[in-house]
């Protein structure tokens, strides 16, 4: 009986592996960039197609085309035309989704530029874009047939900005390719940019689990110059002419630093292999922003920048939620407490067996009181995801909550590690 079981497991694993390899054969060298605008209100969304490009390189892993975790507020899928087999899937959390839950979105129409990236298919494919509803279901909002020989697909030579290679460990398809773009650095400030990137990535690679996986990363610093130094601070009537139009006061929050002009960001990357985009803003003021599989932003010169740099990448790389619960975020219904959130480091206890259940190794009360005796232990602590009731975090203190934690908690570390390893299969 035991032997039979082993044979079955071996057979199942080999089927999965060969399925992944078969899928990889459906793609060729290069990538597709599919541009559109999200246009909508708090309860509606329309996808307005803009342009499609063939890019020379794709930074992703051909062995993980359909095995990325089902995280994100949106996801896109590619199916082989005819067989209807899933050949690529990726989830992401765009800025548009966060805007949709602001009060502004109840009164105004918003428009946000977005690109989807996937490896270049050898045959025509069917593209499906879905949003995650408040009830947690996937709802299809857009479909298109991607025709590989459509003569409108732009296929140009793309200029590549000067690149300072900070870390190189090998081929992009087997490594995590982190590209850092200069924002608010003038042409004559590129030495400072290189030194800022090194300082902040050095702080990243001494933090677990990044410290254990430094050799799985390529880090490229893209020298994209701005006309002026710094960034926009709309609440203080300060505006600077910069490469990507970054600004504080996103959705009214003084420290929320994001980028309005995503098209310019993507244009700068057309000739580069990448997995994660980090915009480093030449600025002393505290701030940042991080979005799963979409964007990471951080200011360079604040005393807390090394912490913010790590925290935002927790969102961007691993889809981690904020574990803090006292904040001035101006969102309505960020989390539906009737369902289990998709983020790996918070729970509503509705399907806790799918979360960090197995990482609770000690006899500990659940929920776990926020008392000194449980400091540093993995439990289930009420408070997280911007609310102090109904949402629970794995530890009392973690970098997804506050700087004083000194590190990512074991649950966040495990999620980050899984995300890293997925790029190296
Ligand atoms: Zn954590």
Describe the protein's architecture and organization.
The chain is of the alpha+beta class. The chain has three domains: 21-146, Immunoglobulin-like (Sandwich); 163-318, Collagenase (Catalytic Domain) (3-Layer(aba) Sandwich); 352-406, no CATH class. The chain has helices at 2-24, 95-100, 104-107, 190-204, 262-268, 305-318, 410-422, and strands at residues 27-41, 44-55, 74-80, 86-92, 110-121, 125-132, 138-146, 163-167, 176-183, 217-222, 246-247, 258-259, 276-281, 288-291, 295-299, 381-384, 387-393. A hairpin with a 2-residue loop joins strand 1 and strand 2. Helix 4 crosses helix 6 (305-318). The longest helix is centred in the N-terminal third of the chain and has 23 residues, at 2-24. Zinc ion (ZN) is lined by residues 323, 345, 394-395, 398, 400, 408-409, 411-412.
Task: Describe the protein's topology.
Elements: H1 2-24, E1 27-41, E2 44-55, E3 74-80, E4 86-92, H2 95-100, H3 104-107, E5 110-121, E6 125-132, E7 138-146, E8 163-167, E9 176-183, H4 190-204, E10 217-222, E11 246-247, E12 258-259, H5 262-268, E13 276-281, E14 288-291, E15 295-299, H6 305-318, E16 381-384, E17 387-393, H7 410-422
Parallel strand pairs: 9-10, 9-13, 13-15
Antiparallel strand pairs: 1-2, 1-5, 3-4, 3-6, 6-7, 8-10, 11-12, 14-15, 16-17
Bound molecules: zinc ion.
